[in-house]
Amino acid sequence: MVHDADHVLAASLAEAAGRLLLALRRGPSRGADLGAAGDRASHHFLVDSIRDRHATDAILSEEAADDPGRLTAERVWIIDPLDGTREFTESGRDDWAVHVALWQRGSLVAGAVAVPAKAIVRSTVPPPVVPSIEGPLRFLVSRTRPPAVASAVATSMGARLVPMGSAGAKAMAVVLGEAHAYIHAGGQYEWDSAAPAAVATAAGLHVSRLDGSPLRYNQLNPSLPDLVICRPELADVLLRTIGTALARPADR
Predict the structure, then answer these.
(1) Which residue range forms the structural domain that includes residue 92?
(2) Is residue 133 part of a domain?
């Protein structure tokens, strides 16, 4: 059973892990050492905090070996302790995040994303209110590996592609009304999208695979290589345009 406490816990843990990461960022470590320290510290904080409160819940984390016991667990916390490690190590960048989500009996039931450098935390309860947005279409894509399909879709729809780091930061930019959509293809895992998907869904946004099928979590293989998060009024035309682009071999 999901309680309000699960939503509160997800948000409080994401926020607290973000504070820990901000403190590390102010310290002497730089570059790869800072990234490794951030991944490690946030992971241990989140895992220890969850186990202190829910000792029998399973955990799937980017920073730990996968425990197959999660496949038969009733509740699984899916966490990315530091999404956007590269951006975290680069001075002045704010597009990195902390993801905390709870899967239960086939569905994501709670989640939170913190974007600590912007002092932003959004969670499934209370559900975020997505503001109106004006101006030309803006589609967010990976900063390091923007998918070819997104370029084709942007050309067809007259949109501008905006590169950004963390998946959580991109998803929250759509939630906050700063962009119309986030399009990704080319490889991710459950921890990259679980919390962003939970929060975006709670906010009333469209969330799916590029082919329109639902995102499924706590699977044997945690690879979940593509997704689209967008404003609901844009979903039909965006999915049709993505489908057309994917049907052209050169755009795959």
Answers:
(1) 4-123
(2) no
